[in-house]
Write a structure and sequence with these properties.
Blueprint (H helix, E strand, L loop, with lengths): L3 E12 L2 E13 L4 E5 L6 H8 L8 E10 L2 E2 L5 H7 L4 E4 L3 H4 L6 H12 L4 H14 L5 H4 L9 H13 L5 E5 L7 H18 L2 E6 L2 H7 L2 E6 L2 E7 H6 L4 H8 L22 E12 L9 E13 L4 E5 L6 H8 L7 E6 L2 E2 L6 H7 L2 E4 L3 H4 L6 H12 L4 H14 L16 H14 L4 E5 L7 H18 L2 E6 L2 H7 L2 E6 L2 E7 H6 L4 H8 L6 H13 L1
Parallel strand pairs: 3-8, 3-9, 6-7, 7-8, 13-18, 13-19, 16-17, 17-18
Antiparallel strand pairs: 1-2, 1-4, 4-5, 9-10, 11-12, 11-14, 14-15, 19-20
């Protein structure tokens, strides 16, 4: 008998526009020790389906219209609040996507871990503390006796996710639901977390539901896969069947959207003879001072960028890769003067732009535009798309209203948006559409250089593919140069001509994209490349075995 049986589950939301069906007649089962992977784009119903099992949906506006969810014969959908509180964390635990928002910032890790044990298992303070320390050690946190007294903000993203995993397994649940647990993590930390989850699942014989839009991750962790589109389960089967004998067009679309090759031939770059760099960094250093002791003058110097020299030539796309904290984004921010540099030179079109207050420098800076990671926070929520784009255009040229409308419409068409959307606000667009607006705003000033800082990391694989192809198209159309910052090496391989690898503020390796990917020289580059998930179950499992051996 299955550990969990879900039968014909339907969930809807009542909105101003009417009733929205988020999950439609979903049925699946989960065995003890088995991993079920649920994949699909944002809005497909993956998280809503699992949240409904634990009573985590706000009711209203959510409502469960039909179905059963049987846990050892007990219907979770019929349980009262008290019964669900006993099941949550005790028999079914959940790892959420962002540990920073799901951990209480006001409480120490110690308080949050021991509370779970005292509430669900009736442990004494001392017994709960010993168990919590042991759980932190089990998930690979060094010096757990010290770390258990830390607050969430004092831990890295990977360590916070390890704390969430420790918390979810403290009560030895029968089912673990992992909702996009590695989306916000670097590729090497992601690999560590996935190995950890799989090992703990095997040690505790836990049934695992793993939600993700990353088919490379699902390939390596799932026994069975369930594909969701707009609330419907469109395809189910073993991982091998889903990947090798794909039936549904939507599943094929997801698989085809994964960037696994180099830059398309139609967008290949060739360096012109005697070309001079458009952007040149010479010995760039950007340091920050961290006051880590309250009411003292003692400071730590954080060398975010430490003696970096790189060149980018006209029409070239340079990919800048590395883990979080390596200094990638700080380089981009230093170039456009969002942070003050400590030492070195930034040369743009043979002019130094690292000085301040120079009129020529300010004019040069207008030729450099940035596309940020999160378009929702970088777009003004009180300004329509028209106002956002018109404001940028007016810095370049003065136009009357008719000319301005025409220019805005042209920009919208360049990034694949409809002209009838110019009076909408950012919140009325999807994440992919907002990123298109951010790209249009960057193009409005007709720049020569675009700095794209993780522009697709928050997007689903299909939307990500669309944005990458859009960037290639506008680079070719406007003869742009680009610095593309990312921790996703598959994305960097698809869009970049050359790649620079950063580690702890320094460039450790540079080279032509395909040369670097096929023959990496630095151990850090090799470790990054070896951690890339492969959207092929057999190859991905073999890669994991090879990685664990090495």
């Amino acid at each position: 008998m299955s550990l969990l049986n879900v039968e014909n589950l339907s969930v809807s939301f009542n909105t101003r526009e009417g009733k929205t069906e988020a999950v439609k007649n979903a049925s699946f089962s989960l065995q003890r020790g088995e991993t079920l992977g649920i994949v699909g784009e944002s809005g497909s119903g993956k998280s809503v389906l699992c949240y409904s099992l634990l009573g985590l949906l706000p009711m209203p506006p959510a409502s469960i219209d039909s179905g059963k969810a049987l846990l050892d014969g007990e219907d979770l959908l019929m349980c009262n609040k008290k019964a669900l509180r006993h099941i949550r964390g005790n028999r079914i635990s959940m790892i959420f996507q962002d540990p920073m928002t799901s951990l209480n910032p006001y409480l120490t890790i110690r308080t949050q871990l021991t509370e779970t044990l005292r509430l669900h298992k009736g442990f004494s303070k001392k017994a709960a503390l010993m168990k919590a320390i042991a759980s932190l050690e089990e998930v690979g946190i060094a010096d757990p006796e010290k770390r258990i007294n830390s607050y969430p903000h004092e831990l890295s993203g990977g360590m916070r996710q390890r704390v969430m995993i420790a918390m979810s397994l403290l009560t030895e649940p029968e089912i673990l639901i992992a909702d996009e647990p590695t989306t916000a993590l670097d590729v090497t930390i992601q690999a560590q977390i996935l190995r950890l989850i799989k090992r703990l699942q095997n040690d505790h014989n836990v049934g695992l539901i793993f939600i993700s839009h990353d088919l490379g991750v699902i390939a390596g962790i799932a026994d069975d896969v369930m594909v969701m589109e707009k609330g419907d389960i469109v395809e189910t089967g073993t991982a091998e069947n889903i990947y090798y004998q794909t039936q549904h067009p939507y599943t094929k679309k997801l698989l085809c959207s994964i960037p696994i090759t180099g830059k398309p031939l139609s967008h290949q770059y060739s360096l012109e003879t005697n070309a001079q760099p458009l952007l040149k960094l010479e010995g760039l250093k950007t340091y920050f001072h961290d006051n880590h002791v309250f009411m003292t003058k003692k400071q730590d110097v954080i060398k975010a960028v430490d003696d970096v020299s790189i060149e980018i030539y006209p029409g070239e796309t340079l990919g800048l890769v590395g883990e979080s904290g390596s200094g990638k984004s700080t380089i981009g921010r230093s170039i456009i003067n969002l942070v003050n540099i400590t030492q070195g030179k930034i040369m743009f079109n043979d002019k130094e732009i690292s000085t301040h207050g120079n009129e020529e420098t300010n004019i040069s800076r207008r030729q450099i535009q940035m596309v940020f990671q999160d378009p929702y926070s970088s777009l003004n929520p009180r300004m329509t798309v028209f106002d956002t784009l018109a404001e940028a255009i007016s810095l370049r040229v003065k136009l009357n209203r008719e000319e301005m409308i025409s220019e805005v419409v042209k920009l919208m068409e360049d990034v694949g948006l409809n002209a009838d959307q110019i009076r909408k606000y950012p919140h009325e667009f999807s994440g992919g559409q907002r990123q298109r607006i951010a790209i249009a705003r960057a193009l409005a000033l007709r720049p020569r250089l675009i700095i794209a800082d993780e522009p697709v990391s928050a997007l689903d694989v299909t939307i990500q593919a669309q944005i990458l192809d859009l960037l290639l198209k506008i680079i070719k159309k406007y003869h742009l140069t680009m610095l593309f910052i990312s921790h996703d090496l598959s994305v960097v391989r698809y869009i970049s001509d050359r790649v620079a690898v950063m580690q702890k503020g320094k460039i450790v390796e540079t080279g032509d994209t395909e040369d670097l990917f096929s023959n990496p020289q630095h151990p850090y580059t090799r470790s990054l490349l070896s951690a890339i998930p492969i959207p092929d179950p057999r190859k991905e499992r073999q890669r994991q075995i090879d990685t664990s051996i090495t």
